Amino acid sequence: MIFADMARLATTSDVFNAIAEPRRRQILDLLARGGEQAVGDLVGAMRIGQPAVSKHLGVLRAAGSVDVTVDGKRRVYRLAEDPLPAVLAWVTPYHRTWSRSLDRLSQLVDTAASREDSEEQS
Fold first, then answer.
1. What phi, psi does 70 have (nearest 5°)?
2. Which of 63, 78, 80, 106 is least buried, going by the fewest C-beta atoms within 10 A?
3. According to the model, what pLDDT value does residue 56 have?
């Protein structure tokens, strides 16, 4: 039983697992666009039950992607200051590679277009 709890904790606190679920990404999108939002607002926007939204928010909170404040009986969520640092760190090298490849492709296209223009003018 202890091992199952340990595996569950590791899974729910991992940002990659947290954002793998489409509804959790939807929550992050809603918070990114709308700023702070109460659970009830998220329930209305997502059209799913409050328990499901709260469960998703719990996973995002455990992963460090959202922060919560209590305002009376309401819980208000917002994106964490740095919600996806592990994702950004992981994707950065790939972004650089893709960016360089696209820059080279753009240069090749520009060169080919310049040659076609030169040939047409001749």
1. -100, 125
2. 106
3. 96
Q: How high is the mean pLDDT in each 10-residue block of the chain (122 residues)?
A: 42 80 96 94 95 96 93 93 80 80 82 78 72
Q: In angstroms, rounded to a whole number, what is the distance separating the alpha carbons of residues 67 and 122?
A: 65
If you search the block for the tokens 């305002």, which residue do you land on?
71
Distance CA 18, CA 23 (A): 10
Bridge partner residues of 66 (DSSP): 79
Give the start-to-end residue ranges of the domains of the chain: 2-79, 84-122
Predicted pLDDT at 122: 66
- Provide the strand spans (E) within 1-122: 37-38, 66-71, 74-79
For 48-66, give one letter per residue: b (16+ CB within 10 A) or e.
eeeeebeebbebbbbbbbb
| CATH code, 2-79 | 1.10.10.10
